[in-house]
Amino acid sequence: MAVLGHAEAAVDSDGIVRRIHPSEVIGGMGLPHISWVMAGVAPPHRPEARLIQFSGPSGSYARVSAAALLAGEVPPSTLKGHPVLVGATAVGLGDTVATPLSGRNGEMSGVEFVANVLTAVQTDGLIRPASLAATLVLSLLLLLGVLIAYLLVPLTMALAMTFVVAAGSVLGAVLALKWAGVWWPPATTVLGVCVAYPLWSWRRLEASVTAMARETGRIASLVPASVDAVLPHQTFLDPVESRIQAISAAVDRVAAGIAIEAGPAERKALRDDTLRHLAHDLRAPLISLRGLAEALERSEVGEAEDLVARVDACARRALDLSEQFLLFGRADNIVATDFGEVDLVELLHQVADDLWEDARRHQAAIERDSIAENWWVQGDYRLLSRALLNLGWNALRYGPEGGTLTFFFQRDPAGGVRLGVRDQGRGFDPQEGTSTAKASPIGSYGLGLTFVRKVAERHGAVFAVDLGEDGFSAFLLFPAQPR
């Protein structure tokens, strides 16, 4: 029985033959590929091309000369039980195709190409490529998932996750080819996630610089515009360097503004004290940030993860100091008419909750000890909560690792109530602690404890410390006047 079929090969844009069409319309007649005809199976209903799994390079199939066969020189057993294809294999006749396996053996003859297709049909070895729509949708979903994960996973895991997704895409494509006979090209996804990580890292650095710029403006707005010190023009090519210079100038401006109403000697002493303190607390993380930014520009993608984490930590430290400096200005200018009702017990619980994450990193436990469920005073909630938070951070810094921090609200033996933090360390000397409560506007214990002393003064309280058998306590002593 004679059956018609086509033997056309689909040539890709690079001139390589990788696929065939199960059926073709030739002369208005739909013809299946000759391989399906010889295998005795119907071609697929869907007309898209199929990729071929080649059995090998040119010369992988046995060849018999047609002249020798007609002359009876070929034993019948050589052909018995095997499909026979007749075609030209001589070099120079033009019936050859270039395949992915063309190399030293040269191009493959057309009849051997059909033999490879026939073998693939008989062994179910043809590969169905994923459609363009399916490829784009899956690639975009994976890329979108990576971008969302950047917002959720810890910073130190972002780079590892990028490599996992890229490697997983390649592995998924291999498994889909092996188990389902479907080819999904993973190059789009791999390229997308590899580009997404450095772009996301730069965006984080840019966000940190933007936040620093915003804080610079807030610091500069603390004093009148008539102060001589002004912010410099931002002519630096490096945005991080320009922000460092701007914040340094803003610090000078604020220091000058604070001392406007003081006498010449007091103004100079206050300015020098302020700048000496801030030079250590504020400029150090900003200079570190500048160095890390330069290292980030020179680093490879593999090194960027740690640098971005350190940049982020420095920026957070600088912003925290800027916020505390702003609150210091607020505490310096607030008056009793600005106060509202504040529940000291509720404030204690809120600050303890806010410090929980920091305590966990120091392997410290947090406990609470209060003599009342509520204790109302007239004050500023934001200033009081920051003062108590500073005491908590101080206890974490100088207390023993893995100890216990107790936020307490207790009666004072001499009258009044205490709101503070107790740790199991020795803190600083009680005599020196007393002098801190009576020190100059800046003092010698850093901006944090100076801020606590200032807040205590504005609320009619006293900042004091106590070293007892149960540990070191730092607290605000309020008059016993609950509402």
TrEMBL record:
InterPro entries: BphY/WalK/GraS-like, CHASE2, HATPase_dom, His_kinase_dom, HisK_dim/P_dom. Keywords: ATP-binding, Kinase, Membrane, Nucleotide-binding, Transferase, Transmembrane, Transmembrane helix, Two-component regulatory system. It is an enzyme of class 2 (transferase). CDD domains: HisKA. GO terms for biological process: osmosensory signaling via phosphorelay pathway. Residues 277-482 form the Histidine kinase domain. Its EC number is 2.7.13.3. SMART domains: HATPase_c, HisKA. It catalyses: ATP + protein L-histidine = ADP + protein N-phospho-L-histidine. One of its GO terms (molecular function) is phosphorelay response regulator activity. The chain crosses the membrane at residues 132-152, 159-177, 183-202. This is histidine kinase.
